[in-house]
Amino acid sequence: MTARITLYSRPGCHLCDEARTVIERVCADLGVGYDEISIADDPELFARFGEEIPVTFVDGRQHDFWRVDETRLRAALTG
């Protein structure tokens, strides 16, 4: 299954946990995959996303940060 969503997160982030739950539900419903990348061990990613995590990308383009809106995510994947 090809990942269409990338979730940038860090350990211990409650917003990341919430985002992951939404993403997993949408992916299961639509049959698409996602990748999760921790910014904790990558200084470049931490500098880029540190204040905005979780950050989601759909098909390589930034989609959301802080919160994942399920309806908006579904629309991006099906539209």
Describe this structure in words.
The chain is α+β, with helices and mostly antiparallel strands. The chain contains 3 helices and 4 strands, in the order βαβαββα. Helix 1 packs across helix 3. The protein has helices at about 15-30, 45-50, 70-79, and strands at about 5-10, 35-40, 55-60, 60-65. The protein is globular. The two termini are about 20 Å apart. About 40% of the residues lie in helices and about 30% in strands.
Estimate what percentage of residues fall within beta strands. Answer: 25-35%
Low-confidence stretches: none
Question: Numbering strands along the chain, what is their spatial order in the largest sheet?
Answer: 2-1-3-4
How many strands in all?
4
> What does the main sheet amount to?
4 strands, mixed
Order of helices and strands: EHEHEEH
**Number of helical segments?**
3
- Average per-residue pLDDT, rounded, comes to 95
Radius of gyration: 12 Å
How would you name the oligomeric state of the polypeptide chains in this document?
single chain
Structural class: alpha+beta
Bin the helical content: 40-55%
Separation of the first and last Cα atoms: 19 Å
Shape field: globular
